[in-house]
Design goal:
By secondary structure, the chain is of the alpha/beta class. Helix content is about 50%, strand content about 10%. The structure holds adenosine-5'-diphosphate and magnesium ion. The site of adenosine-5'-diphosphate has 16 residues, from α7 and α14.
């Protein structure tokens, strides 16, 4: 059998299975699965990770066999194998579960494309990205508002719309959502969404074919051109020339252009000035890493979307400890949900801390696992005392002194804990640093912090922040 007939077979099986499995389970565990081999009654089913394998083995075995028998009587045995490539963009063996759930033609996966006109290919807009499910906070309010305005009146006031910001902060979401929203308002408009890589390839292809029609004419019929990650056009002169003409053509015809980039136009290196100055003719908005409240709101929204119930303090912990991008925030949450489903449990601070820890270089689990901490850190106790006193805005003499007020005691205990934990100084040595305290006092303090870290997510956040400052 060929890969594609395996795929047809598996799709048929999944269609039948769909009604027998809870939707959430179906989506989580059958996404990117595939029949790898089917020979002599033995079917090998590939899955992208061990979680899926374990879950399917434990929960699905019998139902699966009986379902397959409805289609093929000869099956006697099913084996699940982990194939990590399943689910990566260039591995097409896996079945896209979303496509089985919804029959509407636009609900196709992001990696698929549609041909809009001769030579114009657009990636399908992901219907999951909407302006309504984009959580708005201080740091992305303007970007969201601009997208709303553009979708209500494409080619109008804000043209081009230029959205910039770091990785995983929602640019692609906003761009695709705007495309979706334009189509909702104006179903007849033609919206093309391309990544700048794709755009470059098309141009190279067109040049290679010496196609008679100039490249810019291809986009005649497009009402809105969305180009994601324009920074990748840097140093590609030919592409930039063609893009310049295409842009002008669209702009002169009052067609909407929406662009995203990792930097504002002025800072884009390797892009012609005449292009970047065009970008500045319209509206420039940025997306920033959202503040704590917005992060929490995003987590809550994603929980609702995935129908997951997670305790508020666990969500707060995630919101506190993920500091790089919304994508990572979402990643931690999805892993926590998947793991909880697998283990039939609910996520705890401890379990999500492990996930955060895996994703981060620094140790979100500080104090949870005391053993095996063998990092060599060349720092002095003085450094740690400086950092702690700076963090809590306490003068050294108070931190090191005898005051037993809680607001001073706690930072002092944390400083002791960090010196012990990170520098491995003896309790006696630490005692001497802190006005000659007895070693049992230090021991008690360190112990206390370790215990509290297990329960107190705010303390854990502080300790993590301190460690980051210490370069851990
Ligand atoms: P970028 O293109 O900037 O690298 P993405 O648009 O791919 O980032 O965003 C990463 C993930 O985070 C996506 O799943 C997106 O839906 C989600 N996301 C980002 N910002 C928000 C937000 N404000 N509200 C809801 N989801 C968001
Ligand atoms: Mg993106």
């Amino acid at each position: 059998m060929t890969d594609s007939s395996y795929k047809d077979l598996w799709t048929e099986i999944l269609k039948r299975l769909k009604s027998k499995v809870k939707k959430a389970h179906f989506v989580t565990w059958f996404q990117d699965t595939a029949v790898i081999e089917f020979k002599d009654g033995r079917m090998i089913v590939g899955v992208p990770n061990v979680y899926a394998r374990d879950w399917l083995e434990n929960k699905m075995g019998d139902d699966l066999v009986s379902t397959i028998r409805e289609i093929d009587q000869t099956v006697s045995d099913i084996v699940f194998e982990v194939h990590p490539n399943l689910g990566l963009a260039d591995d097409t063996r896996g079945v896209d579960i979303q496509s089985l759930l919804d029959k509407s033609p636009r609900k196709i996966r992001g990696k698929q494309e549609v041909k809009l006109a001769e030579g114009v290919v657009s990636k399908c807009l992901n219907p999951k990205h909407t302006l309504q499910n984009f959580v708005v906070g201080q740091d992305n309010r303007l970007a969201h508002a601009a997208c709303m305005a553009v979708s209500a009146n494409p080619g109008g006031a804000y043209n081009p719309l230029f959205v910039y910001g770091g990785v995983g902060l929602g640019k692609t979401h906003l761009l695709q959502a705007t495309g979706n929203e334009i189509l909702r308002h104006y179903p007849d408009k033609v919206v093309a969404y391309v990544t700048s890589e794709r755009f470059t390839n098309e141009i190279i292809e067109a040049i290679g074919k010496r196609s008679a029609r100039s490249f810019k004419d291809r986009y005649r019929n497009v009402d809105c051109l969305i180009i994601d990650d324009i920074q990748f056009l840097a140093n590609k002169e030919m592409t930039q020339v063609e893009f310049f003409h295409t842009f002008n053509e669209l702009y002169d015809n009052r067609k909407q252009v929406i662009i995203s980039s990792d930097k504002p136009p002025k800072e884009l290196k390797g892009l012609e000035a005449r292009l970047t100055s065009r970008f500045e003719m319209g509206m420039i908005v940025d997306v920033q890493f959202p503040d704590f409240e917005t992060r929490l709101a995003i987590l809550n929204a994603k929980c609702r979307e995935h129908q997951a119930l997670i305790a508020p303090d666990v969500l707060e912990f995630v919101a506190h400890n993920v500091r790089s991008s919304v994508r990572e925030l979402e990643g931690v949450l999805l892993q926590a949900i998947a793991q909880a489903q697998l283990e039939n449990s609910t996520p705890t601070i401890r379990s999500v801390a492990r996930i955060v820890q895996k994703l981060n270089k620094y140790d979100a689990l500080a104090g949870y696992d005391d053993a095996g901490d063998d990092r060599a850190v060349a720092r002095s106790p003085q450094d740690i005392i400086d950092i702690v006193s700076g963090y809590y805005k306490l003068p050294h003499q108070q931190l090191l002194g005898a005051d037993r007020h809680k607001g001073i005691m706690r930072p002092r205990q944390i400083a002791m804990y960090l010196i012990r934990q990170e520098l491995k100084h003896s309790y006696e040595e630490i005692g001497k640093l802190f006005s000659g305290r007895n070693h049992t006092t230090v021991m008690h303090a360190v112990d206390k912090v370790m215990k509290m870290l297990r329960k107190d997510s705010l303390l854990l956040r502080d300790v993590n922040a301190l460690k980051v400052e210490m370069g851990m």
